[in-house]
Amino acid sequence: MRQTLFQEKYPIYTLEIDKSETSFTSVDSIIEHLKGKIDAHPVVAYIGVFDHYAHTSGLKDGLINEKILAAKNLLFCFGKELPSPAVLAVRPRSIGVAEMESAFVITFLEAPNPAANEAMEAWAIGLKNT
């Protein structure tokens, strides 16, 4: 798992999983597996799935990198505390799942809560050889 700054300001985690390293065969199967992790977590609330590929391809001027075959975001919230309105700016969470020709790319924005980062990282790494 790589930690980088996207556009020089957004701290993101990225994991590229070669299709030979996992038993998952589609973005939907990965999303369903991750949803199970969310449903099993005592604090996390499932929100929904956003089909980013379908949305962008449906736009008149939508542009999609030709190497991306599918792309969805799984939306959820780790919020067990609401100490101030500012917290709303960093919630909910999202894990992006993109399918490329020979790999799946899993991405998420670093959360201010270390436990949330640890869980999301474990969920992503757990996709390998599953």
Quick structural overview:
InterPro entries: DUF6858 (IPR049204). With 130 residues, this protein is of the alpha+beta class.
Topology:
Elements (H helix, E strand, L loop, with lengths): L1 E5 L3 E9 L8 H14 L4 E7 H6 L12 E8 L15 E7 L3 E7 L4 H12 L5
Antiparallel strand pairs: 1-2, 2-6, 3-4, 4-5, 5-6
InterPro entries: DUF6858
Pfam families: DUF6858
Walk me through the structure:
The longest helix has 14 residues, at 27-40. The chain has helices at 27-40, 52-57, 114-125, and strands at 2-6, 10-18, 45-51, 70-77, 93-99, 103-109. Strands 1-2-6-5-4-3 form a six-stranded antiparallel β-sheet. The chain has one domain (2-125): TATA-Binding Protein, CATH 3.30.310. The chain is α+β, with helices and mostly antiparallel strands. Pfam families: DUF6858 (PF21651). InterPro entries: DUF6858.
Strand order of the largest sheet: 1-2-6-5-4-3
CATH architecture: 2-Layer Sandwich
Give the helix level as a range of percent.
10-25%
What is the residue-mean pLDDT, rounded to a whole number?
95
**Radius of gyration from CA coordinates:** 15 Å
Principal-axes geometry comes out as: globular
CATH C-level: Alpha Beta
For the record, the count of structural domains works out to 1
Task: Assign the structural class, choosing from mainly alpha, mainly beta, alpha/beta, alpha+beta, or little secondary structure.
Answer: alpha+beta
Secondary-structure element string: EEHEHEEEH
| Count of individual beta strands | 6
- What CATH calls the topology is TATA-Binding Protein
Low-pLDDT residue intervals, each spanning 5 or more residues: none
Distance between the termini: 17 Å
Biggest sheet descriptor: 6 strands, antiparallel
> How many DSSP helices?
3
**Content of β-strand:** 25-35%
